[in-house]
Design a protein that fits this description.
The complex is a heterodimer of chains A (249) and B (308).
Chain A lengths: L1 E10 L2 E11 L4 E5 L6 H8 L7 E6 L2 E2 L7 E4 L3 H4 L6 H6 L9 H14 L15 H13 L5 E5 L7 H18 L2 E6 L2 H7 L2 E5 L7 E6 L10 H4 L1 H14 L3
Parallel strand pairs in A: 3-8, 3-9, 6-7, 7-8
Antiparallel strand pairs in A: 1-2, 1-4, 4-5, 9-10
Helix pairs in contact in A: 4-5, 7-9
Chain B lengths: L1 H19 L15 H8 L3 H29 L7 H13 L10 H34 L1 H16 L6 H8 L3 H25 L3 H9 L4 H37 L7 H10 L3 H31 L6
Classes of the chains: A alpha/beta (249), B mainly alpha (308).
Amino acid sequence: MLRLDAVGQYYGDHPVLRDLSLTVPDGQLLCVVGPSGCGKSTLLRTVAGLLPAREGEVTVDGTPVTGVPDRLAVVFQDYGRSLYPWLTVRDNVALPLRRQGLGRAERRTEAERILERVGLDGAARRHPWQLSGGMQQRVAIARALVCRPSLLLMDEPFGSLDAQTREDLEDLLLEVHRTDGTTIVFVTHDIDESVYVGDRVVVLSPGPGSRVVLDLPVELPGRRDQIATRGLPEFVALRAEVGRAVRGG
Amino acid sequence: MSGVGEAGRGGAESETSATGRPTPSARPDPTPAPPPIRQSTRLRPRLPAGLPHALLRWVVLGLAVAAWELAARVHGSVYFPPPGRIARHMYDLWFSGPVRHVFLTEAAVADILPSLGRMAAGFALAAVAGIALGVAVGRSRRAYALCNPVLQFARAVPPPALVPVFVVVFDFGTPMQIASIVFSAVWPVLINTAEGARNTDPLRLDVAAVLRLGPVERLRFLVLPSALPRIFAGLRLSLSLSLILMVFSELLPGTANGIGFTLTDAQTRSDLLTVWAALVLLGALGHLLNTGLLAVEKRLVGRGRATA
């Protein structure tokens, strides 16, 4: 379970987040939505232990976050920079496994297994820059999943992809979430995406000093489907509610 | 002393090309690479135009040598022997040896190899020390702030000016020569490596932190690869400095072998043909070593570097 308790972050003296409290139960896929500049990325960096909380406390399974928590993975928006271009796709994915003391052969097998899962079995020996944007983000997702994280943070992961690729990756994410039951915090500025992907949507107010203005469970009938789900009256209603909150109405 | 002047020019030239080169972090966003295939098809129509350009370079060189040959023959000066005679003399002096010695004569073994050995030792030590210290300085903001003025000062001292210091410290001989090379060649590698390591992409550092890479892994998989283009820019400068300092330190008294010694020795005997042969040999060596380093760089940096 992830818990934020009255977390405050500042950029210099400028408040970015203020008195932010949030509890994410195990296995939930939480979407955090807000206008750009509202501190969504700061929130993720705080949870990831990359930025110590200036005020309040973040705990993962009851342990306060001081460094990067165990079994945490992050997918960044900028896949071009987040992947290491001098390593092959397989070596990029296998990189986090070194810490676990696996042998070379085991690391490779594991990396290839996970690459197959994200639909990239043919690309193991290529370099990231030889792949399309969508494929590169799949590599980044594979690298995040390879250590079987219990908490996955995603910072606008599909923000720079085209619509079709984006939908494919949203479905891949839902599939991963269904089978692994990983707790996921998914940051996005796309209202549609947040309702389609999330079990719950949290809307942050515009900065400075963002706080939660809406906390909404997403209950949609049936398994999510790009065409059918988006046409449901429940989906449309939820989207409108999130939209109003984002616009501050 | 013409060698020193050339050093200054060569150094300045490579340096601008080193900073002008876009480092991975300097680029705003490495968007998916334009595939190499497309690039080559785009270049193909230009290929016929590029071919004469390469030819032209050799034509100019050939013409220059021919003009020199002609002028030297017509003039008949003892000070400026024609290139043909120089080449012949080089062959007789160094490259007419037996096959089992790779055609090297005893004189070549006695003069060229010790020089190359000292240069290799000096360059290798400078490279290792420069990369190690450069990473250390570049990865710590405080160390960089503290060391940068010192480094800029050390770099600004004309390297041959240090040689008298080492003569006093080490006396004449190989240790003095190697020390001179190391203390001149270490700065460009050190400064460029520090700069490269300092400019490691912050997002990639975040990734390393999230993947919980250890310090050694972070160095091996992130800091060194991303600093590699800068490291090589420094190595190229250091290589030419090593060659200059190798010759310069051998020009001093107390040296018994080496290409620099051959130069001064021939000069005292007024053997200008040998002086010219040594100069041509140095030029050829410098070119060969630089080409070798560029080939290594292309192999190491070229891979996976189309965009980043």
